[in-house]
Amino acid sequence: MYKSKLSLLDTEIAIKYIKDLFEKELAKALKLTRVSAPLFVFPETGLNDNLNGYERAVRFDILELKKEVEIVQSLAKWKRMALAKYGFKENTGLYTDMNAIRRDENLDELHSVYVDQWDWEKIITKEERKLSFLKKTVKSIYKVIYKTAEAVNKKYPQLTNNLPKEITFISTKELEKEYPTLSRKERENAVTKKYGAVFLYQIGWNLKDGKPHDGRAADYDDWKLNGDILLWYDLLDLAFEVSSMGIRVDSESIVKQLKKKGELKKLENPYCKAIVNNDLPLTIGGGIGQSRLCMFMLNKAHIGEVQASVWGEDYIKEKASKGINLL
Fold first, then answer.
1. Of 49, 70, 116, 128, which is the active-site residue?
2. Does the annotation mark 228 as catalytic?
3. Fewer CB atoms < 10 Å away: N or C end of the chain?
4. Which H helix or E strand runs over 184?
């Protein structure tokens, strides 16, 4: 039966150690400055992330303003606006703690209603809007992940994080060609188990079978220049996504992608207008799961072991019977 390698108290201490070290190294690697970020936004601004399009944002009204606001589902769009507002220069950027509530999430070992991640964004040049720059940035982030894992292993010898030194790059089209008979998730598992750490890129446009590899919002990532960082997790025998990121849409790609999803009406909101009018800087950015990273590095069997969320009573008892104690 599963048994955590750290006590509850040691787990909390280790979580703090991982978070402090990782964000310090990430900021250094990507030239990022920490900023404060909103927990909620006005829906009419178009700043909230629609994710796959079916998730319902949590809404509530503010008495004084007599208006409704939405708790953010991610800060993908807000960050780009903030870079312009705060006067950041090319090749510098920001990062922040993003906390969200995703009420429609299917709860399991990797998914919780509560989401916490480092959201980051930096300004790039027009010449840097290409695949080679995306890959260069991914390599920088992976180095920080690898360095943090090594430090955790040194501090807690009972933990194991057998990550490869280098991350492997593969496109969704290449993955479909290599594993044509497998499902999307099975493909991710197969390739990540093979290489240990993978950046799966170009997610959003249809593959040969007429469907995209996975859903992506049309108004922040450029589907030709985005992807996910996947790590192989032996404990759960699956590909473990720790980050989704990409070079953001410009005035041309946003229109093509909104048209593809039948969402051209979004061009009327202030955020999309600003992109079409080239009023916002060109950027690259993403999110890196805080609880996900801690779960992976602390060899935990459930995300509820590294974050305090809510779970059904029967579910809590079932997990406890298997040695998994949810916070």
1. 49
2. yes
3. N
4. helix 184-195
Structure tokens at 3: 């048994």
- Is there a contact between 126 and 133 (Cβ–Cβ < 8 Å)? no
* Cβ atoms 148, 129 nearer than 8 A: no
216 is catalytic: no
Q: Which of 102, 129, 216, 248 is catalytic?
A: 102
- The crossing angle, in degrees rounded to 10, of helices 8-30 and 131-155 is 150
In order along its 327 residues, the chain shows pLDDT tens digits of 889 999 999 999 999 999 999 999 999 999 999 999 888 888 887 777 666 666 788 888 889 988 998 888 778 888 998 999 999 999 999 999 998 888 888 888 999 999 999 999 999 999 999 999 999 999 999 999 999 999 999 999 999 988 999 999 999 999 999 999 999 999 999 999 999 999 999 999 999 999 999 988 899 899 999 999 999 999 999 999 999 999 999 999 999 999 999 999 999 988 899 999 999 999 999 999 999 999 999 999 999 999 999 898 999 999 999 989 898
* pTM more than 0.90: yes
166 is catalytic: no
184: annotated active-site residue? no
- The residue annotated as part of the active site, out of 219, 228, 250, 305, is 228
Active-site residue, 241 included? yes
- Of the listed 171, 244, 291, 307, which one is catalytic? 244
Active site residue 244: yes
Catalytic residue among 73, 74, 117, 202: 117
DSSP 8-class letter at 301: S
Q: Label residue 163 left, alpha or beta by phi (over 0 means left) and psi (-120 to 50 means alpha).
A: beta
Residue of 25, 241, 251, 263 marked active site: 241
